[in-house]
Amino acid sequence: MSGVWNAWSWETDPEALRRDVAVAHERFTCSGRLSGRVRPVVGESWRRSVLHGVDPDRTLPRLELTGPALHGHRSAHPLAAAMPLLRRLLLDTAPGPQIVAVGDASGRLLWVEGDHHLRGRAEAMHFVEGADWRESSVGTSAPGMALTLDHEVQVFASEHFSRGVQHWSCSAAPLHDPDTGALIGVLDLTGADPLASPQALALVRAAATAAEMEIRAQRASGFLPAPRTEGEPARLRVLGRDHGLFEADGRTVELSTRHSEILLLLARHPRGLTGDALGALLHERDAAPVTVRAEMSRLRRLLGSGLLASRPYRLCRPLTTDLDEVRRLLADGGCREAVALYEGPVLPRSEAPGVAEAREELQAEVCEVLAAGADPQALLAWSERPEWREDPRVLTAALRALDPGSPRHAALRGRLRRLGS
Q: Residue 54: left if φ>0, alpha if ψ -120 to 50, beta else—which one?
């Protein structure tokens, strides 16, 4: 039996597995149905490949970097400092022919080295420096899946979505900045069947850790600059909005509901969340860890590197929310300003348990502070909010602050009577 991330165990017959998965792949590409001995992590990648428009018979990776552009990007990348170590670990003492590939966080291969004969064959499928091996570009492969899921993973033979890659097997692991936790690249071993063995995945995982520690050591010695620090805090707006607005470094990005939920939850848990904990806060029946990883990878690609870290998932730079700003104004006595900023409930259509808790907490806090002694204008503005127009607590507090003889007092009394209070 194979595991979640391992293609097969030592008891597996690779040839039988290859045949079984090939049959399942043929069935899937003809009918869209998954069956047979396909690992769930591979089946989900096949589905994403279809959604990305990858043709299993025709799609080849795009060549995105060549010549001076490739050399300039490589020399400026922090992983350049780790390449001598990776060559010693994975090429100088390799037990057999293999290819070592290192790519950036966008899935572009920057170094492709190793056995000359294998590299010649790999050129036919564009497994070369400068090629884009993201999952969205070429379908299921170990480098693309490792970046998509932010986890080490293997892809064995017919598990590849593109048929032109199914003569190969590979093990890959994501690479992170050791100081910020940001995803900076991917390490891949490609070759024959043994490179989908449990030993190969353990080797790639260990080599990835060694590469990250090498970057840290080079920085400590002064050979590499410290990671770039960001300027002003990023901002997330979630009040009264179904889709959050992320603002940072002069740009504004409208987020999906799910990505809005993730950023809000990470802002509320600055020490970070495990995949299981984040999944529980996103869905009342828990979201699968693989699903959480895929969403985090999409969010990282959308917002760029330097914001999100893994293990645990956490923010790498300050992120303020309009929810926090309302809470600070209330604490400082700025009730009128708080009401003006409060544009509605937190992500009102979100059903994520962690978001619902944040929504209810803020509403209760606003009610408590305003009812305790806000000025009449703030209370009147508060009572006109759609979500609070029929809340007896709000109307009663506003009535207490108004002149009993005023027209507004009479209107609020009428509204309160209509509610039966």
A: beta
